[in-house]
Recover the amino acids of this structure.
């Protein structure tokens, strides 16, 4: 990520939170962080390579899935989200573009930039008050 973009859009807090969350977790259904570093222009997150690409593109090519295939993919996502929830982390941006499929067909949740670690604060409890996403008027 370019440092000037991170600063311009005030993303330092989200980037720091993403790094901390990725360093604290280890699940076969979530992208793995190996290292972070920076230079004068960029911040780098060294993640495991997931060779199949994002799930959105995969679904676009695959088309309609049968029931067992759909259940398998949903199960992968569910196990990743369950792992996060069991570690007091809420993901907040689940969509096909934020999952990647490996060469064995397993899904991995990627892009934890909007994830949040919940704390046991007596005033707020296990809740978050930040609104993430787009508002649509129908």
């Amino acid at each position: 990520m370019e440092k000037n973009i991170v600063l311009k859009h005030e993303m330092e807090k989200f980037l720091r939170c993403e790094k901390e969350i990725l360093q604290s977790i280890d699940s076969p259904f979530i992208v793995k962080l190996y290292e972070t570093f920076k230079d004068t222009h960029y911040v780098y997150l060294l993640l495991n390579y997931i060779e199949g690409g994002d799930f959105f593109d995969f679904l676009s090519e695959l088309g309609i899935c049968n029931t067992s295939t759909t259940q398998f993919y949903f199960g992968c996502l569910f196990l990743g989200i369950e792992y996060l929830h069991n570690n007091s982390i809420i993901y907040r941006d689940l969509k096909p573009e934020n999952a990647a499929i490996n060469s064995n067909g397993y899904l991995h949740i990627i892009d934890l930039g909007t994830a949040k670690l919940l704390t046991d604060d007596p005033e707020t409890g296990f809740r978050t008050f930040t609104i993430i996403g787009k508002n649509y008027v129908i």
